[in-house]
Amino acid sequence: MGDAGALEKLLADATASPLALSRALTAHFGIDWFAWTYDALQMTLERELNVAVPATTMSKVMASLAVCTTDAFWLQWEHFHFLVQALNGDVPDFKNHRELSVAQMMRAVTLAEQFRADLGKLSYTPQFSDEVARYVAAQALAEAVWYLPPPLDFAARYASGLRYHCNDCGYESEVMFDDGLCDRCVNRFDTSRLGAWVPDPARLAKGWGSNIRYLEKNPTAPVARRLAEVQASPGRTLQENQVDVCVGKLLGALLYAKHPAVVGAST
Description:
The chain is mostly helical. The protein has helices at 4-12, 18-29, 38-49, 55-69, 72-75, 77-87, 102-119, 130-142, 156-160, 201-205, 221-232, 242-257, and strands at 162-166, 172-174, 212-216. It folds into 2 domains: 1-157 and 221-267, no CATH class; 162-216, no CATH class. It is 49% helix and 5% strand. It has a 3-stranded antiparallel β-sheet. Helix 2 (18-29) packs parallel to helix 7 (102-119) and helix 11 crosses helix 12. The longest helix is centred in the middle third of the chain and has 18 residues, at 102-119. The chain is globular, with a radius of gyration of 22 Å.
């Protein structure tokens, strides 16, 4: 059993980190609490610790539980959307669609990765689905951010609008499969095998489809370069242009995501 007094203080603190809460609950109850429902957990906490748990705290606790025990955060955009809200201290709004900020998404992904790391060999960290990656990119673009460094780099190609141009046939398209091949040259969308979406082996054997060059609708190199410059020299003044505005938003988001409260430094 963990320190009941410390757990009680955390539960009563509406600003407590979801990671700190999860670690304290696991220290006190073991992983048994992973199987409890919302009502069972709330009743146990209130009866055993005699503390009224704020709704925001219960929201963070249940979001932590969901991320620890299911892969939905990584696989389905709806789950990702509401869990990001909860992990950032908001009670999810199921009636209205709230836009997510890059800062909120970075913080939630940072937390989710740490939750799974804490579980060690009991779990693993899944890869984000294409569905979630596209959703993250859409939310970032709505905030006028088109370069996504870690921990949101899994959505970077969608935010940048990565495309390719085939130097052999002239075909140009969004990068859908990211295997360095021209979909037309390798006959990927042959109607006789629509369920597979794979290149024609015969065309691959002839070396077709690899002569492509990549294009970005939203160029990321200037943002990446400027972000590195500003991070290396914190005293630099940002200018009123697209690149620096994007950099300013990223700096704030990265600072928020790496706040000590995110990794439960106070525990």
